[in-house]
Design a protein that fits this description.
Elements: E1 6-9, H1 16-21, E2 26-29, E3 32-39, H2 51-68, E4 76-83, H3 86-96, H4 98-101, E5 108-113, E6 122-129
Parallel strand pairs: 4-5
Antiparallel strand pairs: 1-2, 2-3, 3-6, 4-6
C-alpha cells in the first residue's frame, strides 16, 4: 500500500537495477531524502569494470538521484560507504571524493567493509535534508 507521507524519487534514465531488485532509488519523507545505496552501474545494471570509473559512476548516479529530488551534495548530512576491499581501495576512492563533496564541513560518514556487493566495488547510501522549496506538505 502506498503511503501519502512518502514518495519515491526516480532520476531520468531509470537504471535496470531499480526494476530488477524492486527498490526505489530514494524516498522523500518528512523533510528528508533517504537515498538507496548507489553503485557504479551503467544503465543496463552492469558494473563499470575500472575502479576509478566505477567510483565516478556511483557518485554520478547518486548525484542524479539527489538532483531528481531538488537536492545537491551540499544537502547530504549522513553517508554510509560499503567497500568490498577497504585496505586495497580506500585511498584511491578517497582521492576521488573531494571532487564531489567539496570543502568542509563534510557530512557524517560511516565506512563498512563487506564481502560482496553483487559484482560492485562500493556502494554509497546517503540521507539528505530536503531544501524547503522541495518539500511536499504533510497530509
Amino acid at each position: 500500500m502506498h503511503s501519502p507521507l512518502r514518495d519515491a524519487v526516480f532520476p531520468p534514465g531509470r537504471h535496470a537495477l531499480y526494476e530488477r531488485h524492486r527498490y526505489s532509488p530514494a524516498v522523500r519523507c518528512g523533510g528528508w531524502l533517504f537515498v538507496s545505496g548507489q553503485v557504479g552501474s551503467r544503465e543496463d545494471g552492469s558494473p563499470e569494470p575500472d575502479l576509478d570509473a566505477q567510483v565516478h559512476r556511483a557518485f554520478q548516479n547518486l548525484q542524479a538521484v539527489l538532483q531528481a529530488a531538488g537536492c545537491s551534495f551540499d544537502d547530504v548530512v549522513d553517508v554510509t560507504v560499503f567497500l568490498v576491499d577497504p585496505p586495497q581501495q580506500l585511498e584511491r576512492i578517497w582521492r576521488i571524493l573531494p571532487s564531489y563533496w567539496g570543502e568542509a564541513p563534510y557530512p557524517a560518514l560511516t565506512g563498512v567493509g563487506v564481502t560482496w556487493l553483487s559484482g560492485f566495488i562500493l556502494e554509497i547510501k546517503v540521507i539528505a535534508k530536503l531544501p524547503p522549496e522541495t518539500q511536499k506538505p504533510e497530509l
